[in-house]
Amino acid sequence: MIRLRRLAKIARVVGKYRLDELLNKDSLPFAMRAMLAPAALFGRSKAGRGERLRMALEELGPIFIKFGQLLSTRPDLVPTDICTELAQLQDNVPPFSSAIFKTNIETALEGTVDDLFHSFEADPLASASVAQVHAAVLADGRDVVVKAVRPGIENTIRKDIALLYTLARLLAKYSEDGRRLRPVEVIADYEMVILEELNLQSEGANASLLRHNFENSPLLYVPEIHWPYSNENVLVMERIYGIPVTNMADLNAAGVDMKLLAERGVEIFFTQVFEHNFFHADMHPGNIFVDASKPKSPSYLAIDCAIMGSLSSDDQFYLARNLLAIFKRDYRQVAELHIRSGWVPADTPVNEFTGAIRSVCEPIFERPLNEISLGHMLISLFTTARRFNMEVQPSLVLLQKTLLNIEGLGRQMYPQLDLWTTAQPFLDKWLKDRYSPSAVFKQFKRHVPDWLEHLPQIPPMIFQALKNMQDAPAPGPTPAPEQNGKSGKLLHRLGAALAGVGLGVAFPHWAESINQIPVSSLILVGLGLLLLLLR
Fold first, then answer.
1. Which has more confidence, 243 or 71?
2. Which residues are annotated as catalytic?
3. Last residue of a domain, one of 435, 463, 494
4. CB–CB of 407/375 below 8 Å?
5. What pTM was estimated for this model as a whole?
6. Burial state string for 464-484 with b = 16 or more CB within 10 A and e = fewer than 16
7. DSSP state of 225
8. Domain enclosing residue 45, as ranges
9. What total number of domains does the chain contain?
10. Handedness of CA 190, 195, 196, 198 (dihedral sign)
């Protein structure tokens, strides 16, 4: 009955805002066209499609608002005008009872609010779709904020997600772009993200790691998590005091160096993505503040680490090379990198793809560098690649949205911001460092323990390989080349493994004194070279 009432409300909202006009009705089955027909009774709407969708999601409630916020981060799926409108969705949800909040805190922390805190503010600091935040002071006098999820929110989320899955399956079945856009997978991503937000311990862990990554950094400060007061249901963290990043009047009044602040925002982004491979993926203005205590050397303050992103090592590498190739206008390399990375099918015609990329990028480079949006250029590239069957890359799109946020904020603070001036040297240095001798040796050291773990298995394998060679049949027909190849490859791999382990053990001692090299490591190197020669 509850689900039927919810469906009835959704149907009414669809008609009220004429969301049926966003669908290609000719491709829908007769039953669905009949269900949507009553929407025409509401008449035509004068508002734009993006505005209508935003107002509909706001009326449907917190879970749909959260879904709209997620869609605003997917410009690869959603048209630009709709993305822009959905980005205006705010999480200003009416707060729930402070008494219930206190009860939840006391249940989760097994104590009374009066015993846990020196003082506690009954009125919330902020109220969002999933959680609510109150200010408090610990017994030792430290200012903190206390965050707890809304009561009963998980049950509401699961019911609404079930409805979203139904809508996604219909879209996948009857939409021409259904297979490429993968709406069911998008809902699955949303489900994972929003359910993860219910686990405040996960958010606290993200914040702790981000804080560790920027420890003692002049760029970014992340509030400390007070773990004795935190668990899955409650998060208590240091209270920060700063100027909202969009409050230009206060920033200018404080004498903040806006050029440096904008450039540091870009530096933070590239540091998170390429050096730490762990980036804050929800950097909208409400989550970013500025520490203006040192106006000539301002830093950022970041909160709400529920949504974080990371890339695979291959995606990091190909993304960096793509950006550098774009900057150098080497469009063929951009096309080849898309193919080699698997972002587009391997049979994509390189020349045709190169021409399509050139047609997107070349007009952009006719403008001054400080007017070029790297984020919008990536959107254009991904949109072009969609014509060549590029599938959605969720991690890359999350990164792209974060870049758009950073770029937009940076230009708002300092309109002359030249993103390329900051990005190119950083990417050049990152690629150079990635293949430096120290980086290669670091990777080598990382794998040595695994090799040593398998070291005891190597002598029996060598013995068996040599025995198989000894027990080979008397001279007769020549063994098949394939068999010879397999034996040779086995010996080669064993030899390389032995020599590698031996060198790995010997190298640290070699750096100190050649006399301290263990004899065992020299024996391993010798056996390895012998097997390589036997091949």
1. 243
2. 282
3. 435
4. yes
5. 0.72
6. ebeeeeeeeeeeeeeeeeeee
7. B
8. 2-90+158-165
9. 4
10. positive
